[in-house]
């Protein structure tokens, strides 16, 4: 359930909710796999969707933790060129270990002298259409704005 609109009872065993706030979880997806999609997943999905990017367009995902990993997967699944950006080794490693079909097209360390060149090369000097910032790191957010 995406949220309870004007109703109590979210911790009840049963409740009535508007149909548009519900989603059927396929049998192949466990509750543990589906749980993050209703908060973290919706957060990054709506951001990506509202960009209005066309298939094949390029997008940067800044901050590769839980939100960033979901954002990478969503962006790749809809056909975008994805640049994963982080300044932490763990974030860069997580991005590099994703399954091939969901792996970012480029993984860059923000602040690295080669970061801008990597993005320029990938996008044929066009640059990124936009960036989804999935971190509270002020330097990373500032980098994404430029």
Automatic annotation (TrEMBL):
Keywords: Metal-binding, Oxidoreductase, Zinc
The organism's place on the tree of life at top rank: Eukaryota
InterPro entries registered for this protein in UniProt: GroES-like_sf, NAD(P)-bd_dom_sf
Cofactor or coenzyme needed: Zn(2+)
Gene Ontology molecular functions: alcohol dehydrogenase (NAD+) activity; metal ion binding
A GO-annotated cellular component: cytoplasm
Name under which the protein is recorded: Alcohol dehydrogenase-like C-terminal domain-containing protein
Origin species: Fusarium falciforme
């Amino acid at each position: 359930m995406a949220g309870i609109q004007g109703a109590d009872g979210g911790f009840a065993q049963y409740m009535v909710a508007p149909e548009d706030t519900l989603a059927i979880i396929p049998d192949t997806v466990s509750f543990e796999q589906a749980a993050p999609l209703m908060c973290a997943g919706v957060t990054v999905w709506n951001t990506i969707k509202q960009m209005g990017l066309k298939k094949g367009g390029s997008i940067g995902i800044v901050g590769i933790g839980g939100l960033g990993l979901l954002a990478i997967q969503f962006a790749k699944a809809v056909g975008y060129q994805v640049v994963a950006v982080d300044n932490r080794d763990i974030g860069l490693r997580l991005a590099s270990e994703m399954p091939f079909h969901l792996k970012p097209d480029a993984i860059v360390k923000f602040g690295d002298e080669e970061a801008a060149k990597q993005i320029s090369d990938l996008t044929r000097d066009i640059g990124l259409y936009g960036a989804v910032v999935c971190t509270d790191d002020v330097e990373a957010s500032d980098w994404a704005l430029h």
